Structure formats: C-alpha cells, structure tokens
C-alpha cells in the first residue's frame, strides 16, 4: 500500500529502498544515509529537524527551493507542460539566452534531459561530421551512464575494462607538464593507441573542471593543447560543462571560456534547471546541419515549457544575484582558509580549486571516508572524488557567502579533531 515516510522512519525507509530499489546498485551517501525533507538556500534539513550546511550540491546552484524558480516552474506546470514539438516562447528564449553566454560561433542549442544524453547527442554530431569511430578522454573521467558514456567514463571502469575505441590521456595534474606542446603530444599519443585498434577519433571529451579526476585547475595552455591535439587528429573537442558550468568558476558561466579556447561542442546539465531535468548541447550550426542531412532530433521531455521555465529562472537568479561574481569571492576565501588549515594536520594534503569548488587531498581513502562521516556529524555535507576516492570535494550552491565558507572550514577543523580523538586508543 502507499505509506509515506514519517519522522523517525529513516532506517525503515532505507531497508525498504534496498528491497525495492536494487540494494547496492544505487549507493546512498554516508554511513547513516540522511532523509532530507527540506532545503532552503545553502541549508538542508533532515527528518529529525537537524540542519546541515550543503557543501556539495550543484544541482541547486541558486540555492535550495529558490522562490523565483519555484514560482516560475509552478506557474508553468499549472498552465501547460507537454512534449517539445510545439512552439513556446519560454523554450526559444532559453536557447537564445544560452547562445548569448557563449563565444561567437557556438550559436545553436539542442536540448536534452540529462548530461549523459547531451554527451551522447554530441557524440552523434561528431561522428556524422568526422566519420570517426573512437573517442579520446581524460584518465579517470566521468561523462554519464549509457553503455557508451560508461565506456567514456574511465573513473568507473571495472578492473581490466579497456574499450578499444577509447584512448586516454593524462589529466592536468603535473604542473610541469601543461604546455600546449606537451598536451597536444599526449592527445596525439592517445589517438595513435586508437589507431592500433582500427579507430580514428571523432571526439575528444573533457570535463573542464576535471572534477572526477580530482578537481584540477588547468591553465589555458592545457585547454589549447586539447583543442589543437583533437583537431590535428581529425576529432572535435567537446567541453563538458555539465558539472563545472553555470557560474561556479565565475565571473562568466563557463569554465572553458576562461582559457580563450572555443570548443566545437559544449554540453550542459546538472544545475541548468535547478533539479528540473534539462540538459543541452551547444555547438555550431554547420555541425547540426550536417547531422540534419541524415537524421532529425526529438526527445519527448527535452525542453518542455516547464523545463525551460526552470532554465530561464536559474539564469535570472544567477544574473540578479550576481552569483558567478560572488562565487569568485567566496571561493577565494574558502581556498585561503583551507590552505591555512591543511598544513596543521597530517591528514590533509594539497588543496586545489577554482571559483567555488575545491578538492582537498586526504592521506588515504579510509581516512577520507572517516573524515567525510565526521563532517556530517559536525553538520556539513560534502563528498569524495578522484581516482582513489580520497579527495574531499566541496562544490556548494553558489548562494554561499564567506560566512558559509568559514562555517565549513570550522566544521572541517572539528571533524579532524574528532578523527584524531577517535583514533587514539582508550
Ligand atoms: N558529465 C559530467 C562531467 C558529470 O559530472 C555528469 C554527472 N555527474 C555527467 C556528465 C552526466 O550527467 P547526468 O547524470 O545528468 O546524466
């Protein structure tokens, strides 16, 4: 029968979820998974009334339950929401506004309902344009959940999995190795490895924030090397902004744009509809025209009026509250404070970031996991990332100000004390 969870039901809900939803296939965050019942701005409230600082969610880029987003989506749902084959001004407006944020040339938007689908569609556009059958990706990358995107997500490869149509190159990790020439060389070496398996690359995909790779702040020369390397191998360059985009790295909306490089394709998702599913490929008209010679494109839920209302509301809030500019200020403060804290403990190592995203190396994975749990006990919700799962990831809603950054670092300091206390016998 239907039964809604009530206060105190969290453990029951967890076991019901395990029974009905496949057990370990869809893991939850944290040793004691949280039942979050409400969000407001940078805060998440659990069913027991406890309030947590959200240091992780970028879907809620403009904060949880933002009133502008809620009103606009609600109003549209109350009026009309259907598939995407009718004219609707909200939808066209969203496309035009996205184009206006892009460098000249990236003039065409195709909507999807997820980041995965955006990357898949970009892949189809690239194969039509280039005739290639292989892809080039960064080691330890993540690009989505379909069979092919799972193959393009090297961070998720099971041991021994090595798709022969996929070539990998290094993330921007070693500061001495990020010039245009050396990056181009690496891309070309990855393409040669593909050629051994009979493939030519159609597309090079890279998350512009290298988040799954451990959060890396790549210099412009690295991005230039990706573009030059891809083009010299006959492949197109896709900047995956699904995770890092939408103002997190300020003052504009897109991380790739800071490098001056103009990719052939850009994919968007996650924060785009503040949780209402919407994603997009942004590209040049000629690539879409080429695709249109043999195919058309329609996806039922891709930019319904309500999805577009969510998308436009997110852009409005980002602009009105100048959140991308604020992300730079808050982020710089957060990184300063983290860089002060890290040397005071053996547990933390390198601190990396750009705008309002940070990756903090933790000494090893078990310690990282214990630290994450200790942070939850202190009232802050973060995550782990990186090849070894030992990088603490801080990627909060952009409504954070410096007081939230301070609170987070204070929670982290107390979590570290908690760890060192619990590791002392007796
Ligand atoms: N690309 C990147 C860089 C991502 O971080 C994600 C989601 N974590 C995706 C693609 C896939 O997006 P989605 O989960 O909406 O399919």
From TrEMBL:
<keyword id="KW-0808">Transferase</keyword>
<dbReference type="GO" id="GO:0030170">
    <property type="term" value="F:pyridoxal phosphate binding"/>
</dbReference>
<dbReference type="GO" id="GO:0008483">
    <property type="term" value="F:transaminase activity"/>
</dbReference>
<protein>
    <submittedName>
        <fullName>Aminotransferase class III-fold pyridoxal phosphate-dependent enzyme</fullName>
    </submittedName>
</protein>
<comment type="similarity">
    <text>Belongs to the class-III pyridoxal-phosphate-dependent aminotransferase family.</text>
</comment>
<keyword id="KW-0032">Aminotransferase</keyword>
<keyword id="KW-0663">Pyridoxal phosphate</keyword>
């Amino acid at each position: 029968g239907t039964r809604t969870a009530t206060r105190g039901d969290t453990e029951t809900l967890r076991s019901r979820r395990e029974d009905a939803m496949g057990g370990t296939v869809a893991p939850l965050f944290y040793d004691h998974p949280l039942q979050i019942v409400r969000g407001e701005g940078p805060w998440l409230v659990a069913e027991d009334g406890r309030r947590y600082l959200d240091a992780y969610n970028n879907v809620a880029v403009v904060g949880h339950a933002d009133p502008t987003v809620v009103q606009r989506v609600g109003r549209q749902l109350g009026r009309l929401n259907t598939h995407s084959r009718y004219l609707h001004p909200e939808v066209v407006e969203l496309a035009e506004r996205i184009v206006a944020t892009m460098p000249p040339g990236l003039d065409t938007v195709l909507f999807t309902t997820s980041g995965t689908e955006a990357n898949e569609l970009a892949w189809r556009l690239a194969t039509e344009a280039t005739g290639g059958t292989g892809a080039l990706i960064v080691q330890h990358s993540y690009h989505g959940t379909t069979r092919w995107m799972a193959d393009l997500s090297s961070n998720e490869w099971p041991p021994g999995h090595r798709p022969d149509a996929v070539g990998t190159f290094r993330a921007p990790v070693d500061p001495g190795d990020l010039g245009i020439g050396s990056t181009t060389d690496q891309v070309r070496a990855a393409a040669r490895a593909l050629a051994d398996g009979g493939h030519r690359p159609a597309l090079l995909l890279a998350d512009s924030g290298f988040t799954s790779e451990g959060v890396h702040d790549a210099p412009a020369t690295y991005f230039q090397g990706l573009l030059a390397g891809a083009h010299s191998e006959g492949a197109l360059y896709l900047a995956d902004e699904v995770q890092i985009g939408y103002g997190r790295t300020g003052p504009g909306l897109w991380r790739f744009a800071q490098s001056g490089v103009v990719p052939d394709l850009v994919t968007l998702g996650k924060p785009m509809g503040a949780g209402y599913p919407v994603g997009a490929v942004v590209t040049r008209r000629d690539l879409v025209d080429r695709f249109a010679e043999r195919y058309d494109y329609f996806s039922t839920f891709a930019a319904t009026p309500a999805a577009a209302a969510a998308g436009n509301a997110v852009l409005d809030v980002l602009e009105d509250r100048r959140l991308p500019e604020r992300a730079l200020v808050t982020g710089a403060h957060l990184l300063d404070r983290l860089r002060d804290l890290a040397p005071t403990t053996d547990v933390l190592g390198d601190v990396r970031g750009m705008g309002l995203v940070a990756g903090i190396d933790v000494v090893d994975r078990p310690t990282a996991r214990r630290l994450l749990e200790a942070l939850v006990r202190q009232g802050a919700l973060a995550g782990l990332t990186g090849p070894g799962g030992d990088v603490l990831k801080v990627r909060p809603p952009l409504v954070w100000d410096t007081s939230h950054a301070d609170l987070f670092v204070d929670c982290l300091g107390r979590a570290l004390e908690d760890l060192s206390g619990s590791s002392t016998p007796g």
